[in-house]
Amino acid sequence: MKLTAGSVPLRVRRAVEMLALRPEQAVLEIGGGTGAAASLICAQLKTGRYLGIDRSEKAVAASRQRLAGFVDRGTAEVRRAALEHTALESDGPFGTAFAINVNLFWTRNAVDELRSIARVLTDDGVLRLFFEPPPGSPAQRIVEQVSVNLAKAGFESTCTIQPLGSSLLVAFHAVSANH
Fold first, then answer.
1. Rounded Cα–Cα distance for residues 61 and 77 (Å)
2. How far is 24 from 46, CA to CA, in rounded Å?
């Protein structure tokens, strides 16, 4: 499927650019929605693979349809699953794990979920979390809560905030402190 710039939200395009993926990489997306990021990622993968999980049956169906060619080639897999109820160890390791606008990471204590992600990352693996706060809302609460959760889960992280149209993109780059 040919994607136009308008068919993929700006936050998703920017996040995928920031992932700086390699063609052989294994990528895990948490909360993949309808597959907007996955479509951009799978187009970059040559020998790599993509696994997307989402708790919504409707979103997973839409993502599978959007990624049909990649699924048929074995490049992509999409599953209905909630991160907190999913064992991903048999699917790893992943060089990159990421999520875009997944509130779980800042609305509550997500330490167990973050630790489960850490277990499936390669030794040099990276976790990237992206958030686009609603216009006019402060990003500071997201920054503070995600930073605390990441630290408690054993990650070292940096956060950048950059303009995104009339909004902001809050971007975390995290690596396991144990590696």
1. 12
2. 6
Distance from C-alpha of 128 to C-alpha of 61, rounded to nearest angstrom: 25
Show the DSSP H helices in the chain as ranges. Answer: 10-19, 36-44, 57-66, 68-73, 104-107, 111-119, 140-152
Say how far apart CA 119 and CA 113 lie, in whole Å.
Answer: 10
Q: What is the phi-psi region of residue 177: left when phi exceeds 0, alpha when psi lies from -120 to 50, beta otherwise? A: alpha
Instruction: State how far the Cα of 75 lies from the Cα of 65, in Å rounded to an integer.
Output: 14
User: pTM above the 0.90 mark?
Assistant: yes
Could you read off the pLDDT of 111-131 as tens digits, one per residue?
Answer: 999 999 999 999 999 999 999
What is the C-alpha radius of gyration for the chain, rounded to an integer number of angstroms? 15
How far apart, in whole angstroms, are the C-alpha atoms of residue 153 and residue 174? 11
Residue whose pair of structure tokens reads 């503070």 in the numeric block: 144
Q: What domains can be seen in the chain, in order of their start residue?
A: 5-176 (3.40.50.150)
CA distance 172 to 161: 9
Distance CA 55, CA 60 (A): 8
